[in-house]
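It is worth pausing here to work through a concrete case rather than discussing structure prediction in the abstract. The textbook approach is simple: state the sequence, then state the predicted structure, then interpret. We follow exactly that order.
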Amino acid sequence: MLKRMMLAWVMVLASVVGTAAQEDPVWIQIEAQPNLNAATERARAYAAELPDVNGFALGGGWYGIALGPYARSDAQQVLRVYRSEGVIPRDSYIALSSAFRQQFWPIGANVLNRGVVNAPLPTAPTTPQTPEPTAELPAPEPADETPAQAQRSERQLSRAEREDLQIALQWAGTYQGGIDGAFGRGTRNAMAVWQEREGFDVTGILTTRQRAALLQDYNSVLDGLGLEIVRDDTAGIEMLMPTEIVAFDKYEYPFAHYTATGDLEATILLISQEGDQTTLFGLYDIMQTLDIVPLDGPRTRTERSFTLVGEDATRVSETRVALEDGQIKGFTVVWPAGDEERRTRLMDEMEKSFVRIDGVIPTSASTAEQAIDLVSGLEIRKPRLSRSGFFVDRRGTVLTTVEAVNSCARVTLDSDIEAEVSVLDDARGVAVLKPETLLAPRAVARFAEAQPRLQSEVAAAGFSFEGVLGAPSMTFGTLSDVRGLNGEPDVTRLAMNTLPGDAGGPVLDAGGGVLGMLLPDAQTGRALPDGVRFALDREVLQDVLSQAGMAAAGTNSAAPIDPVDLSEAATGMTVLVSCWD
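Step two, the predicted structure:
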């Protein structure tokens, strides 16, 4: 009986179904679990009590339970009623379809791409039974103000308060005009539509109580965050912070770290340091190397400020920073992906409340151990792996091993120059890369024209430590055989010790001619003796370049050159090739 009364009340509130069906579908996310078994059990429990229960993967190992899909206007009403009845958690919120991935509940269902469904309806009994008393709907509450009184109270609102009401009406889907604080015909019509939808007398003038209800609905997405003003005297910043989600952790110049206290993986950084425009621009560049700032997203920099937005499958990071009176201050919010409405609302509230007070984080504020892959206690973005390659023409075309570019979201040369894979020859293990911007290599490979002699001295250049040293290293050895262990004619065997990062680098004779490309260690399950390495013969490399429409330069390298000149030529043509996820 109680359940049917509640559903009937939801249906009364969820009006205008005909037009709602044309709205973009939204969902009411009610719970998230860190594993599939727990999420399935919770979805089954909710489905026993509520209609339209669905479960989706959220990414990052999390699984969400959501109701819908509904039109936004219906979803807002269902959200409010279900929360007031206590049948869903208080921190439930409106979510977009883009937040969800593969559906796991109901088993075999796939409703992400279908249209909206009607808000819950009471189900009719399938067998005759004694009729139950019809639930009487509550009588409309008497208006708290007459239209004249509402207009008088409305005149006491500040411009900011009037703009807030327009923003809330826009969010509710009834207002499409500009946010100017002027209550013209468009705003009045929007108020009237909202009143009709909410069951109030339609006057086009919101009473004090109605204004409060509208703003409460608008701000409900922030419920459960614990928004409170936090004053950080060390950082010299005062602002609203989601105190139920994050708490202060540490200072690492120029950041104050506020880290997650619960299941929601959120991070907030307060940014505070002395500096000028050069410092601001340097911070802008450094922030983009951090792992917490994904590569995809808009970046804006002016003479006195910058914003950075980065997004990947699991998180969204947004940074807002400005320079005033010799002090650089701002904040970064890192938030789970898919919770976009709540994240954007939180960002707006934090920015509106942001106040600069005296003080900046001192340069001595640091507790973390210094490390090459850390900046102020934050990990820098690192490639999945790095190997070596070498330039084969003056435009910056690079030969490297297939291992360096397999299954990469992006490939770079020397860490920050974007490159595209022009040729991928899996059979022979060779890739040809072309930089997106023209380069000017210090040296270019010239392939040896003479057949090398067995036991002659050879050298390999490569980034042995995968870029940690910032420059290629030289490794010296001898040519053991012009064939592989099984007689392969396109492989040469070398007596030298190299590291994985050297793979893809050039192998040269004593005269500076390129004999081949160093191959990665073969994953055959058989350990080779120490000092046994292999290189792909130069003729194979020349053939790959020829098929790509490129001519390979040759050189008569029979006469040895000075070791210093050899090292300079070898390292000048060698480039770091990095694979990024």
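Step three, interpretation. Confidence is low (pLDDT under 50) at residues 1-22, 122-135, 137-141. Residues 226 and 244 are 5 Å apart (CA to CA).
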